[in-house]
Amino acid sequence: MASFAAFCKWGARVIFFALMIIQCFFLAGYPATYKNNSHWYVLATSFAPAVIVWICLIAFKAKLRWLFYVWDLYIICALIPNIAIVFLVVGDSLDKDNLLGPNALKMVLCITPLLLLLLLHTADDSDQTDEHRELVSKLSYQMAIDLFDAVEMIDIVLEENEHDFGIPNGFGAFMIVLACLSLALSTWQLAENKLTRGGTKIRFRTAVGRNIVEMFFVNFLFLIVRSVVFFEYGKNESIFIAKNGIGIILSVLEIRHLCASR
Question: Which of 5, 97, 112, 232 gets the highest tally of CB atoms within 10 A of its CB?
Answer without folding.
Answer: 112
